[in-house]
Every structure is written in C-alpha cells, then in structure tokens.
Write a structure and sequence with these properties.
This protein is mainly α and 481 residues long. Helix content is 46%, strand content 8%. Helix 2 packs across helix 5 and helix 8 packs antiparallel against helix 11. It starts with 18 loop residues before the first strand and ends in a 6-residue tail after the last helix.
Length: 481
C-alpha cells in the first residue's frame, strides 16, 4: 500500500514508512521512490519518471525533493493523522494538508479571498522564515495529479486546480468577444493579426493556490575583495589546483557550479585548450548553448591542473592524459573528448557539484568565517559586469546594447538551443572583448599588497542590503545552481 488508505481504516494501521528517492541512469523506471523497508511507492515512481521525459535532470531532482519532503511530512503530522488527511485523498483533504504544511512547516502567511474572476482561492505569502521552495512544491503537486489522472490512478479532479476556473475563464473570454462585437460589429480577429487591441493584462489563473510576491530577487555583491577572501580561505584549507580552477571559473565566467563540473575536454577544445569552454545552460537539456570565458592566468592554471603528474588531474586519470594528449586526440579522435570530464575525484571518477560544495567549499569558507554559497559568485560576476558596462557606455543606446550582450553571454533565456545562439554571434564576441577588461581589473585587485589576509569583516554575510534593479532585470528567475 502507498500513501493512500481506505476511508474506513485507521490512519495508523495503514501508515507507510518514510520515502526516499534512488536516481539511476537507464531503463523505463530509472528513478525509484521507495520506502525505508525497500518496497516501492508506485505512484511517485511513475510521476518521477514521467518528469524525466520533459525536464532536465537537475530540475527533476528539485521537483522530487520538494515533493518527498511534503509527502514524508504528511506521514508524521499529528493534525493530518487525526483528520485522516492523505496525499491521495479527495481534493478537500489534499488542500487541507497543503494549507497545514505551508503554514506550519513553510511558515507562510495564508489568505483566502476572491481573485479577479471572483473565484475564492488561497494566496500564499512566503516570509523570511520560509525554508521550502513553495513555487517548486506547488508546480510539482499540480503535475503529480495531472499525471495520475491521465493514467487513471487518481479518481478525483486535480486538487491544485480550482473546480470553477474553467467556467469562469470561458465566461470572461465570452465577455471579451461580445465587447469587441458590440464595438466593431464583427467577431474578434486572431491575436496575431494585430487588428484588435490586445486583451487586458489580467492575471487569469486556474490554480487554487496562488504564490504572491514570488518574483525571485537576485543578490547584488559589490565587495571587490570577495574573490580574494574566498581564495585565501581555500588556500588556508588546502585547496588544490582542481578547486582553485573551479572557483576562479565561478568568479570569472559567471557560470553555475553545476555547469562547471559538467565540463568535458570537448567543451574546452573549442579554444584549443586555452581560455574558453562551451557549456550547457539551465533548461538546455545538456546542449552546449553558451560559451564560458576565463582569464589567461586561469587558463594556465587549467593546463597545470591537467599536466601536473603529482598534484593535478594527470595523477588521478587512469589514462594519464595531459594537454598534449588532448590536442593529439582532438586531431585523431575528437569524439572521444566528449567522454573525458575535466574535474575528477581522487578515485578518478567524475567530480560532482554537490561533492565540491559539501567537502571543499563549505568547510573552507566556514573555517574562515565567510557566509556564502557558490552561487553568490555568479551574482558577484554580474554585479561587476554591470558596473563596468555602466562606466564605459556613453549613450543610452550603447548601454542597452551592452546589457543585451551580457544577456546573450549569460544565456538567460531558459531552454535556448544552439541554433538560437547563431543569431547573436556578434554580440557574444563583443562581450567577450569586454570581459577581458573585467578580468584585468579583477587581477589588479588580486595583486594589491595586503589582500591575502582574511579581513575581520569576513565573519559577516557578504550580501549588501542594496538591490540593483538592473541586476534583477538581467538575472531574472535564476534561483538554482
């Protein structure tokens, strides 16, 4: 039996054990959701593998993580037990469960009131104490019931969709059509024709739960010494060439940590193993849709990392590949470069972003008293890039063009494919030239005397209170690795 039970049974008698997820790599059910006794949770396993067909692997993990935390909470909450609310119960039960979870665990503020169409819905306001990703949870639950309903595994209507939404939306659209007919004497034209005025910009949603103020706010990092403080912390902790290459790439390229640890020799070969890498982006499903650029000193560190037979990658790789070996492979068998990951563990296996974060980044910065996530390097990069753009732009048109170049370099359009990048080749090349100036400024700061010591201020979080509006516009909704 899974999370559901018969209405006439006591909750405790049918209470399943805690759930966890096992991520495989092959097969129809590569992702398995199992209980602690090893038995499968069939419905969630079906859902997880359905997600795998439409989302990137990182997104699937995020959706499943939030869903399992919620599902496991439903098994232990006393209020849910007394009321016999279950995740596969009728819509009223599910909504009560979710409302209780968002209030108690998420520490959200909940309010019920009519929306624009007059539907009485639940509005969710996150607070500074909210420790869950409400947006992911609501999206995951809505998709869960869609999948189960489609497969005939859930016999009720989707609890995350308001039961009167379809009728209300239809009546609203009918009213719009009648208004156009009354004003023009004809039926409305298709929106793409441009004949009729666009519809009113109303937020028309079918969702029963509405997340309020959900726009992601990026963090502006103006401390010019932040990279030096991180480098000093790593040096004190004992970072090797591998960790130093990764961190310098975080600061110099603006890449996500997951993108960096996904790099292959084929990605590096785009610059003949110098200072540029091809890279995937969020939502690109592994397709290399953007270029990362690092400084020449960092490119030299990469080559040292590959060639050092004592403390570098060469010592960890079974094949003992060096940069010269990569160059020869590029000429003779370039396809093999796709199988060679740049970052390896001490055992010679591909190193993951989570391993780096948990065993190298966090302990080094914690020991130095620095409160910062690796993703903060990305915000630091964008903040400094914007500052440079603003300082060199002479006109509003030039400022706008430079910002568009930055947008294209960062590949902020989710799911952008390689073909799309060809439309902006010139913009990308222009920003690459600008990026060299940014790197020069960074390295002048590094060479300043007295910067190796960690400042006493480092015990404070590195996030200033001021938020740059341009930064929010450029970064958009970018809240993961």
């Amino acid at each position: 039996m899974s999370l559901t039970s018969q209405p006439d049974q006591e909750f405790a008698l049918d209470r399943p054990r805690q759930l966890r997820c096992i991520f495989g790599s092959q097969g129809e059910f590569a992702i398995q959701v199992v209980r602690s006794d090893g038995l499968p949770e069939v419905y969630l396993t079906i859902f997880a593998n359905d997600l795998r067909r439409s989302l990137a692997a990182g997104s699937v993990r995020g959706y499943i993580r939030e869903l399992l935390v919620f599902a496991n909470w439903t098994l232990s909450d006393s209020v849910a037990a007394v009321n016999r609310w279950q995740i596969y119960g009728e819509p009223r039960e599910v909504r009560n469960l979710l409302r209780e979870y968002l209030t108690v665990v998420g520490e959200c503020r909940i309010a019920q009131r009519p929306d624009t169409l007059g539907l009485r819905v639940t509005y969710v306001n996150v607070t500074s104490q909210t420790g869950i990703n409400v947006r992911l949870l609501l999206a995951s639950l809505k998709k869960l019931y869609e999948v189960l309903i489609d497969r005939g595994l859930y016999s009720f209507a989707n609890p995350l969709v308001h039961e009167d939404a379809a009728q209300a939306l239809a009546e609203f659209r009918r009213g719009e059509r009648e208004a156009i007919r009354a004003a023009t004497g004809r039926a409305p034209m298709p929106a793409v024709s441009g004949v009729d005025e666009p519809s009113a910009k109303l937020r028309l949603s079918e969702n029963y739960f509405r997340l309020v103020n959900r726009e992601w706010q990026p963090k502006s990092i103006d401390d010019p010494d932040f990279p030096n403080r991180v480098y000093a912390a790593g040096q004190a902790f004992g970072w090797s060439l591998r960790e130093l290459c990764a961190v310098r790439t975080l600061f110099e390229s603006g890449a996500r940590i997951s993108e960096i640890f996904d790099l292959t020799a084929a990605d590096w070969s785009t610059s003949h193993f110098m200072n540029q890498f091809l890279a995937r982006s969020k939502g690109s499903h592994g397709c290399r849709v953007k270029t990362l650029m690092v400084s020449n000193p960092t490119a030299k560190l990469y080559r040292r990392y590959f060639d050092d037979d004592a403390a570098g990658r060469c010592a960890l790789d079974i094949g003992g590949l060096t940069v010269a070996g990569l160059s020869a492979m590029l000429r003779s068998a370039p396809a093999k470069l796709h199988e060679i990951r740049i970052y390896l563990t001490a055992r010679g296996s591909p190193m993951s972003a989570n391993l780096f974060r948990d065993h190298y980044w966090k302990p080094a910065l914690k020991r130095a008293g620095i409160d910062a996530d690796p993703h903060l390097c990305r915000h630091w990069f964008v903040t400094n890039a914007l500052r440079h753009i603003e300082s060199v732009a002479k006109t509003d048109a030039e400022l706008c063009r430079h910002k568009e170049e930055l947008i294209q370099y960062m590949a902020w359009k989710s799911g952008e494919r390689t073909l799309k990048a060809y439309e902006h080749v010139q913009r990308g090349a222009s920003f690459a030239r600008r990026l060299r100036k940014i790197h020069e400024t960074m390295h002048r700061r590094e060479r300043r005397p007295g910067q190796d010591a960690i400042s006493p201020r480092s015990a404070q979080p590195v996030e200033p209170a001021v938020l740059d509006q341009d930064l929010a516009y450029l970064l958009g909704e970018d809240d993961d690795d």
